[in-house]
TrEMBL record, chain A:
This is GPI-anchor transamidase component GPAA1. Keywords: Disulfide bond, Endoplasmic reticulum, Glycoprotein, GPI-anchor biosynthesis, Membrane, Transmembrane, Transmembrane helix. GO terms for cellular component: GPI-anchor transamidase complex. The gene is GPAA1. Signal peptide: none annotated. One of its GO terms (biological process) is attachment of GPI anchor to protein.
Length: 621, 572
């Protein structure tokens, strides 16, 4: 600090920052991206390890052997489901009761804000069925959850079969210390959300549901199961939850331990684990997995029913059975044994899962990057914004003196105070207008869908998406309308002040996002930072404009979709990509209203107005 | 009267050696009972009760002892026959009026198993009435809990002022009492207490036949702890010695309830036998017992047509209204030689027979129908998420078709869980009532649909530290008959002075305690660094620096330069 309070050195340092600003920015940006890419390589990735003592020291012997039972239950369930066309509630109740569970049902209904075209539903109603295995000699203070979502498109009957067979097996054991809730939800995630809200007796999303009659204390952990066939070639684990929340790493470690023990093939993001970490191939494969995870986490949507449990501080993950064309196949007994092992270990827990990491990235199932190692990547990117802001601040401050003027004994810069006041006054209008635009983007599409459907030949869902796009695009016309408001007293100072505010605003937002959801923060920083740093009303304006449009939040979303499909090895054509983009917009709005996902309000109320400020800067006259 | 008493004692003392122990009718009796109840869920409950009654006024004679000790006389009270000496001495030393102690592992599921004979909360529960002669109740209570801790090998020594309460309404003396001054009552629950064989063995040793003969041979630890519910209790209280109640007797009840699980122990069948439950059969009554009986609940209350068949066929049956329903019990009197002599042992068997019309497929399997709902049951849970606030909810269900029950709710909340009592709301029949003065004397009205009243108490809550919060719900039904088997546990003199007690499950509440672990430290350090850096940077960025020409000096500068020149240092 002494360095900066000495005026001579201070000036020298300032000159250094000003002169070397561009190279420093480039260096910092490259360092950030490079650091991120290096996360997949061994010094930065570490082996996972079990931190929780209660789950680590003893192994359990799995005894589940109900293969025929699984198939029988699954066949009956599928038959009853086909007959009734909905979840066979009565059959499930009867079967659960016959294996010795306390059975309860919960009916729920929800009118979506607008029709969900992807899942083809609008007025949703359903019934959740759950059975509680009461642990002998325990007072129902803690419980574990095994849940199977049944959606309109995914029948998941094998998973229901496995759930029932596991329930029957678990019921005959004496060693349970925690109650186990076997939950079958209808309407996949909506059912899970309704059940969770009712279990915790709250209402955060406007769901109408009947109150729960049976409870089993505080839920300690949950596992969601999705199977599509009798045999599986691999099990895929999904950890990314609502708003990018992740379960404690120990839960994943536990599952991986039992996969290894049972010789099951486990994948992450549908990708196999690289075997060879010494050469470049292994880490490169891990990098693809890492990128997929970052994209999934950044989307903020729950990737499976487990994602909704995380809000209630219930550690949870989703296990998906995948049947592809690999030659090693496992029947459901092997899956059942792995689940049995997981539940028995969770049964040993004396405290909540809290020993291991809550913030991590996964380049492979057995490797992780901890928060201390990935944060510098985002830090470097945000440093660019900081450097730019510093440069502008100095330029604004010392405009009268001039940055090139040799330092030394000069009096206080006389034009400083008037310049500053003019700058600030001229900022109010663009700030207000862009925020209002964001508010309109957030509120109008859903609110005005009926007006839109009356005047245009479109359905509600289309209306919402098209309104979104229209308002978004209308924002681009803003500079022309704001110009009149802004006084053109000090043209250069005006845009500098505006850009300074925009840079600080952006840096603050991105830093906050990166703290809670690193993936989203990093993705937005990697795209928005270069354009934000470069934008100015002089120089090659068309180039800047193109760059700015290409890095706007919506374009980032579109680009992410293409990248995601590319990494999944299912590349998109342009037309498909556009369709997917429209669907993703609708889903984003819908998920905000149904589950409380925060991505849509974040983009609409935070980043879009901020991006508009840069657009304003670009077209400053 | 005061003069007559020593005289009577003196007389007894004189008569004692003359009459001899055998000629005198025994002043203490033991009655042992076992009730086997097939539960609606397919499980089976077994409740043992050993009742020792001693026609002796322990405390008064204890007082005598002190005066007579000087004479080195033989003392009646030092001679214990059936009544355990350890407990007898406790009564006199701490001037107890009543003592109720229970150890429970598991939770009685009233909703599925129906109302129990005697309910107990999960963990250890101790409540004691002291005589009104006790001057320092808290000291006696502390000492008593420590002594009991030693007797029963339990952690009762953890009972202290932080978990002891003095309920003013929910608890009344169960035995003979002249007035109830609640300042002599102490109540504590330890919900964490784990019950195991180390608690069972001392309990068994208190029995006159230990586990050598009679019903107590069935008390085999490895089977008793292979159950889904285990509750053992000791109740001591004074009762009337005769119908006119001129003098008192002491009654000790040792009860033990276990629930065998149809799926864990019974392989999914609901056919039970004594051997299957206890891996023992009955061979003889306890020779010291004056009554030794086994009761089997053979009431047919299931909707389906299955009937319960008991073998060997009972000699007599007994009918009574228990907890609002008419119950039929098959009675086996072990003192009746015919019961055991036929086959040299008694292995009671319970078999479910269904008529052929319903198909033999499901015979004996646990039925898949929802069990009948009891009249009154309770549920308790924590609601909300996050650590900044939460609610405790207690739901009471009254499913009686027309009757309303006055209900008293007692909640023991540990001191580190702060409740905002002003947020207490009581909802009945969908209407919210704010309690006006002191909370809960609320009338629970019956409505068609089950769940009506809730008491919501938001709380300031927390992380890894967890608190177990038990709750007691005491209802006072007007015309419920007590179980014939446990009739005398509730005083009959005053019809309004007994309770049916329901215990809700304990709750696990997350408290916002800082865990001083790695993330916590990281957050603290990072915030500190950021705060320091921010302050300095902000200061530097907003401040403008001017270089001021040094003023032309003064006396101080001149002096300083003078000194500097002398030292050979360049001047200022």
């Amino acid at each position: 600090m002494g360095l900066l309070s000495d005026p001579v050195r201070r000036r020298a340092l300032a000159r250094l920052v000003l002169r070397l600003n561009a190279p420093l920015c480039v260096l910092s940006y490259v360092a950030g991206i490079g650091w991120f890419l290096a996360l997949a390589f061994p010094p930065l990735t570490q082996r996972t390890y079990m931190s929780e003592n209660a789950m680590g020291s003893t192994m359990v012997e799995e005894q589940f052997a109900g293969g025929d039972r699984v198939r029988g239950f699954a066949r009956d369930f599928a038959a009853h489901r086909r007959k009734s066309g909905a979840l066979p509630v009565a059959w499930l109740e009867r079967t659960m009761r016959s294996v010795g569970l306390e059975v309860y049902t919960q009916s729920f209904s929800r009118k979506l804000p607008f029709p969900d075209e992807t899942h083809e539903r609008y007025m949703v109603s359903g019934t959740n069925v759950y059975g509680i295995l009461r642990a002998p000699r325990a007072a129902s203070t803690e419980s574990l959850v095994l849940t199977v979502p049944c959606g309109p498109d995914s029948t998941n009957s094998q998973a229901v079969g496995l759930l029932l067979a596991l329930a029957a097996h678990f019921r005959g054991q004496i060693y349970w210390a925690k109650d186990i809730i076997f939950l079958v939800t209808e309407q996949d995630l909506l059912g899970t959300e309704a059940w969770l809200e009712a279990y915790h007796d709250i209402n955060v999303t406007g769901m109408q549901s009947s109150p729960l009659q049976g409870r089993a204390g505080a839920i300690q952990a949950a596992v969601a199961l999705e199977l599509s066939s009798d045999v599986v070639t691999s099990l895929d684990v999904a950890v990314e939850g609502l708003n990018g929340q992740l379960p404690n790493l120990d839960l994943l470690n536990l599952f991986q331990t039992f996969c290894q023990k049972g010789g099951l093939l486990c994948t992450l993001q549908g990708k196999l684990q690289p075997q060879d970490w010494t050469s470049v191939d292994g880490p490169l494969q891990a990098l693809r997995t890492l990128l997929l995870m970052v994209l999934q986490q950044a989307s903020g949507r729950p990737h499976g029913p487990h994602g909704l449990f995380l809000r209630y501080r219930v550690e949870a993950l989703t296990i998906r059975g995948i049947n592809s064309f690999r030659q090693y196949k496992y029947d459901l007994v092997a899956v059942g044994k792995a689940l049995e092992g997981v539940f028995r270990k969770l049964n040993h827990l004396l405290e909540r899962l809290h020993q291991s990491f809550f913030f991590y990235l996964l380049p492979a199932l057995s490797r992780f990057v901890s928060i201390g190692l990935y944060m510098p990547a985002a830090g470097f990117l945000l440093l660019v914004l900081g450097l730019k802001a510093l440069e502008l601040w100095m330029q604004l401050h010392e405009a009268g003196v001039g940055p090139e003027e040799p330092g030394g004994a000069s009096g206080p810069s006389p034009p400083l105070l008037p310049a500053q006041s003019v700058g600030l006054a001229s900022l109010v209008a663009p700030l207000l207008i862009s925020q209002a635009m964001g508010l309109a983007l957030y509120v109008l599409p859903v609110l005005g869908q009926h007006v839109a459907t009356e005047h245009f030949p479109v359905a509600e869902a289309e209306a919402v998406v098209l309104t979104l796009l229209a308002i978004y695009a209308a924002g681009l016309a803003l500079p022309h309308s704001t110009q009149r408001v802004v006084s053109a007293q000090a043209p250069d100072r005006g845009w500098m002040a505006l850009k300074l505010v925009a840079l600080i605003y952006l840096a603050l937002q991105l830093a906050c996002i990166a703290l809670t959801n690193f993936s989203l923060g990093f993705l937005l920083a990697a795209t928005m930072v270069p354009a934000a740093a470069l934008t100015k009303p002089c120089g090659p304006r068309p180039l800047y404009a193109t760059l700015l449009v290409l890095t706007s939040p919506a374009a980032t979303l579109l680009g992410s979709l293409f990248l995601w499909r590319e990494l999944r090895e299912a590349p998109l054509s342009l037309a498909d990509g556009w369709q997917l983009f429209l669907a993703a917009l609708a889903q984003g709005v819908l998920e905000h209203h149904t589950y409380g996902a925060l991505l849509f309000p974040l983009l609409a109320l935070g980043l879009y107005p901020c991006w508009l400020l840069f657009w304003n800067v670009l077209f400053w006259k | 009267m005061a003069a007559a008493l020593p005289l009577a004692v003196l007389l007894l003392l004189l008569l004692g050696p003359v009459g001899g122990g055998h000629a005198e009718p025994p002043r203490d009796t033991l009655r042992e009972e076992l009730v086997i109840t097939p539960l609606p869920s397919g499980d089976v409950a077994a409740t043992f009760q050993f009742r020792t009654r001693w026609d002796s006024d322990l405390q008064r004679e204890e007082g005598e002892r002190i005066t007579l000790e000087k004479d080195n006389c033989h003392l009646l009270v030092s001679h214990y026959r059936l009544f355990p000496k350890a407990l007898g001495q406790l009564i006199s030393k701490y001037s107890l009026r009543e003592l109720h102690l229970s150890f429970t592992q598991g939770f009685w599921r009233t909703r599925y198993w129906g109302p129990p004979f005697l309910q107990a909360p999960s963990g250890a529960e101790l409540w004691v009435w002291f005589q009104d002669t006790v001057t320092d109740v808290d000291k006696s209570w502390k000492e008593l809990s420590n002594v009991l801790s030693g007797i029963f090998c339990a952690s009762l020594n953890f009972i202290d002022s932080t978990n002891t309460v003095t309920p003013t309404a929910s608890f009344k003396p169960l035995g003979l009492a002249n007035g109830t001054d609640h300042s002599f009552l102490r109540y504590a629950v330890l919900p964490r207490e784990v019950v195991c064989t180390e608690n069972l063995t001392p309990w068994k040793k208190l029995l006159p036949c230990s586990s050598k003969a009679g019903l107590s041979v069935l008390l085999k630890a490895d089977r008793l702890f292979h159950t889904s519910y285990h509750s053992q209790a000791v109740h001591i209280r004074p009762v009337c010695r005769n119908t006119r109640c001129t003098s008192i007797s002491w009654e000790l009840r040792q009860t033990l309830s276990v629930v065998y699980d149809a799926f864990v122990t019974g392989q999914g069948k609901k056919d039970w036998s004594l051997f299957r439950m206890f891996s023992r059969t009955l061979t003889e009554p306890c020779p010291l017992a004056s009554e030794s009986r086994v009761y089997v609940d053979i009431t047919s209350y299931h909707q389906d047509n299955e009937t319960l068949e008991v073998s060997p066929p009972p000699t007599t049956t007994y009918q009574d209204v228990t907890l609002g329903t008419l119950k039929t019990y098959a009675v086996y009197d072990l003192l009746d030689t015919a019961v055991i002599n036929n086959s040299r042992n008694l292995n009671l068997q319970l078999k479910w027979k269904s008529p052929p019309a319903t198909g033999a497929l499901n015979r004996g399997l646990v039925f898949a129908e929802a069990p009948p709902v009891p009249f009154l049951y309770a549920q308790r849970y924590v609601s909300g998420y996050g650590l900044h606030n939460g609610e405790l909810n207690t739901l009471l269900y009254n499913t009686h078709p027309y009757r309303a029950f006055p209900v008293l709710v007692l909640d023991t909340v540990p001191w580190y869980l702060r409740l905002y009592v002003h947020t207490l709301t009581i909802t009945a029949k969908g209407k919210e009532n704010k309690p006006t003065s002191r909370p809960p004397a609320v009338l629970l009205a019956p409505v068609g649909e089950p769940h009506i009243p809730t008491a919501r108490l938001p709380l300031l809550s927390p992380s890894v530290l967890s608190a177990l919060v038990p709750s007691v719900v005491a209802a006072k039904p007007v015309d419920w008959e007590e179980s014939p088997l446990f009739k005398s546990l509730y005083p009959v003199s005053d019809s309004s002075s007994y309770f049916v007690r329901l215990y809700t499950e304990p709750l696990l509440v997350n408290l916002p305690t800082p865990d001083f672990s790695m993330p916590y430290n990281v957050i603290c350090l990072t915030c500190t660094v950021v705060a320091v850096c921010y302050g300095s940077f902000y200061n530097l960025l907003t401040r403008t620096f001017h270089i001021e020409e040094p003023s032309t000096g003064g006396l101080a500068k001149w002096l300083a330069n003078l000194i500097r020149r002398a030292r050979g240092v360049p001047p200022l």
